[in-house]
């Protein structure tokens, strides 16, 4: 751990577990082509529930990447996080064995926790009795499970934490990691993953008025349209390696993006009209921290809830900050093709934003055509644009708002 006058957090590794692909290459190929993988829920015990459509991760085999001794004591959401963390560390090329274990920390975010594991153990409790509840129930369901397992498995003893701030926690975790880098930590493994597609969790989600009940995968999640009927949930997420820039450059690491700015606000559950002011304030705060002005924004990865009042508030927040440019800056919401994975959603958007800057390509918003707001929403086909600054937005159903500014490393002065 070292301190200095100017310590910038940079992203050097990414790992993705998503409904449309395992790994960043598969994820980006499907995302840039606007492939929608939304489908009827196939998970056991969910067929009779009012929630019909979701984004499932169907090609992930946890046993192929995680040790058996850990599989039996962890939930699916932690399997996703551990696998994505492995991918991110490999992508970064960070040698975590040679330095001090206190140089590397872990931060994750989750909203649902270990629902699948918890449901199974509760069934054992009520059907067979308490003697049939496994000892790992006490830790597998817990929100901190992913952070704990990743840090123990990797031997990381730096600052570790869990962000519990609604869906926006996926961005807040990155903001937390960036703050630790600025304060002297060398590297943070950070991100979010969710696995909420089991009966126990879905029944809880049915209390959300914003949840889409449509049974048509092509119509179930269409934000910014007159036909918007809510959001479609999903599982999956992304993990990153964020490092201090000078240390990363000294070891010859590839700098994939600069984590330039983050800010968060809170405006209350279901108060979508109020989220206009809160989201706008978060955007301005993130831009200020990044040393950017609104005219620097080249692309926006929208929160895109799919609820008329929330979509209108987001469009107005962007207009408040960007002014007349709001109708001309490319905006996208790739999550309409994979679903909204709660805390994992903005983490996946962050991965897509980094890849978009690298490829100079704004991915489209699947299943959306008739945009009813004054926004330049990219639909149908990807758009070639020089991208130096990306803005990623997220809001939670309980009232959190967050904004993250990413910058292309070649667009930043050293």
UniProtKB/TrEMBL annotation:
Gene3D superfamilies the record matches: 3.40.47.10
GO molecular function: 3-oxoacyl-[acyl-carrier-protein] synthase activity
Protein's UniProt keywords contain Nucleotide-binding: no
Key words of the record: Acyltransferase, Transferase
Cross-referenced InterPro entries: Beta-ketoacyl_synthase, Ketoacyl_synth_C, Ketoacyl_synth_N, PKS_Beta-ketoAc_synthase_dom, Thiolase-like
GO BP terms, alphabetized: fatty acid biosynthetic process
Tagged with keyword tRNA processing: no
Annotated protein name in UniProt: Ketosynthase chain-length factor
Organism whose genome encodes this protein: Actinacidiphila oryziradicis
